[in-house]
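Weekly sync, protein design subgroup
Attendees: M.S., D.O., the rotation student, P.L. (late)

Item 1: inverse folding check
M.S. brought a backbone from last month's batch and wanted to see whether the design step gives back something sensible before we order anything. D.O. pointed out we never logged the input encoding, so this time it goes straight into the notes. Structure tokens as presented (281 positions):
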């Protein structure tokens, strides 16, 4: 009976430890500075470059996904309202972009990823987020840095319609090191996976059924048939991505669980050590 109890305790401790380590790994890989728009700066946020153009950019403190702030972009007549951030990338590497966005009930925001040095072209062309609803949805995309690209510009844009409003929050960008080996080709598609999370009562939570895609030219993508160990690796990757989405949506809860994990781990190790010592005595 005691042996079974020890094994059960060991399994529980191991599971909590894995969850704790995965959360730390997910957070550590993020390259975005001030992705939650929580740190104010000039004119609105630290680390983000802002170009209002013919529209308007404002710090949103009410309609947020998490924390106390989000970016609100209102479109103008020139479709030129955007915020951006520059990142160094490794040529040929695969990257995972995640963020939360919502519209004004009618209009959806836009985004793009531009390879700025020395490669000079869109990696993800300017495209709609496909989220016009007035409640936040999580979007996820994978893309390759071209072989001659060491720097990219991530841009979030207002809706193309004048007066249309879009909100952005909780942005992360990380190199996707957990994927199986993939071989880039010359044609790319950037696929967005929607994970709705309601933070507004004006429109019920809904699950989009259409998956928008962004296409451009001369951009790497990847296709591969996975067998054996590669299939197992892909299954592991899918589990990691699912966990990452849950962790991002429930960050405060994950932090609390991480603390509980640490306490349980320490208590478990002390308990096992104590019982082992007592048995030897």
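Designed sequence read out in the meeting:
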């Amino acid at each position: 009976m005691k042996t079974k109890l020890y094994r059960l305790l060991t399994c529980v401790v191991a599971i909590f430890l894995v969850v704790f380590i995965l959360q730390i790994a997910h957070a550590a890989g993020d390259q975005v500075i001030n992705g939650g728009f929580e740190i104010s700066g000039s004119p609105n946020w630290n680390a983000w470059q802002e170009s209002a153009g013919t529209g308007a950019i404002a710090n949103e403190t009410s309609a947020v996904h998490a924390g106390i702030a989000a970016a609100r972009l209102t479109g103008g007549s020139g479709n030129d309202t955007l915020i951006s951030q520059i990142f160094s990338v490794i040529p040929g590497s695969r990257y995972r972009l995640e963020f939360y966005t919502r519209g004004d009930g009618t209009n959806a925001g836009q985004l793009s990823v531009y390879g700025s040095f020395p490669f000079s072209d869109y990696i993800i062309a300017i495209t709609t987020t496909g989220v016009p609803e007035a409640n936040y949805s999580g979007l996820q995309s994978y893309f390759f840095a071209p072989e001659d690209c060491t720097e990219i510009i991530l841009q979030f844009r207002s809706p193309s319609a004048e007066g249309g409003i879009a909100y952005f929050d909780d942005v992360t960008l990380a190199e996707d090191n957990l994927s199986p080996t993939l071989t880039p080709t010359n044609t790319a598609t950037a696929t967005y996976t929607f994970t709705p999370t309601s933070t507004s009562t004006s429109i019920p939570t809904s699950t989009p059924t259409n998956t928008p895609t962004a296409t451009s030219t001369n951009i790497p993508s990847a296709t591969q048939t996975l067998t054996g160990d590669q299939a197992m690796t892909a299954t592991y990757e899918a589990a990691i991505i699912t966990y990452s989405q849950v962790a991002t949506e429930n960050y405060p809860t994950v932090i609390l669980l991480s603390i509980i994990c640490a306490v349980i781990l320490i208590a478990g190790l002390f308990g096992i050590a104590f019982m082992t010592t007592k048995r030897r005595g």
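Discussion: The mean pLDDT is 74. Residues 1-30+250-281 form one domain.
Action: P.L. to compare against the previous round before Friday.
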